[in-house]
Amino acid sequence: MVTVRKADPALMDKGTQRPRELSPAAREREQQQRQFKRLIGQLKGPEQVFEVRLDPAEKPITIRQRLLRVAAEAHVEIAVRKHGEGFLVGLLTPERRTNRGRRQGSGGAGA
């Protein structure tokens, strides 16, 4: 059964609550995202390539997805390749594009 009772009208008029403080992990993710934005902003041509090294606690797939997400938000196509204990990041060129999952051929539908 529902209970109904009278309440203070000030509760309805109360503004939004102040934003919660970010956790240390969230602050670290924000800092990492800013770092990735700077990195992608520095990519001006295919001759520029950056190396991203990972901490042992970092998951490679997570970092790769974050890099790709930041690049997509910046409307920049990047190539990310495994290298040692991390990744190499550069602008996507036809030579760097993968054909993974696609058949070789004319490229037409049904080929």
Would you spell out the secondary-structure blueprint of this structure?
Layout: H1 10-13, H2 24-41, E1 49-53, H3 60-73, E2 78-83, E3 86-91
Antiparallel strand pairs: 1-3, 2-3
Could you describe the 3D structure shown?
The structure is a single chain. The protein has helices at residues 10-13, 24-41, 60-73, and strands at residues 49-53, 78-83, 86-91. 5% of the residues are buried. The chain has a domain at 51-97. Helix 2 packs across helix 3. Helix content is 32%, strand content 15%. Strands 1-3-2 form a 3-stranded antiparallel sheet, with helices on one face. The protein is elongated, with a radius of gyration of 23 Å. The N and C termini lie far apart (63 Å). With 111 residues, it is an alpha+beta fold. A hairpin with a 2-residue loop joins strand 2 and strand 3 (86-91). The protein has 3 helices and 3 strands.
